[in-house]
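chain below, 79 aa
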Amino acid sequence: MAAESVAGIVIVVLAYASAVGRPRPGISWSVAIAGLWIVVVSWGVVTPSKLNAMLVGLLVLGLGTANAVSRHVPARTDA
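prediction:
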C-alpha cells in the first residue's frame, strides 16, 4: 500500500507539472512509468482493491503514453 501511495503522489506532482509548465514529453513518460509501477506493485493475488489499483495503473499508463506521444514535436530542420 505504501508503494501505491508514493506512486500516486508522484503521479499527482508530475501531472501538475505537465499541466502547468511547458509541455515536455519526459514528464509524460514519467507519469506513464509511474502507472506501470502501480501495475507491477499490484500484481499478484487478485482482490478487489488490487484489481482497482491495477486498472488505475493501466489507465495512467495509457494516458501518460498518449500524452507523451501527442506532445512529441519533431525537431525542425532547415533545408
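The chain has a mean pLDDT of 82. Residues 39 and 54 are 5 Å apart (CA to CA).
thats it, cya
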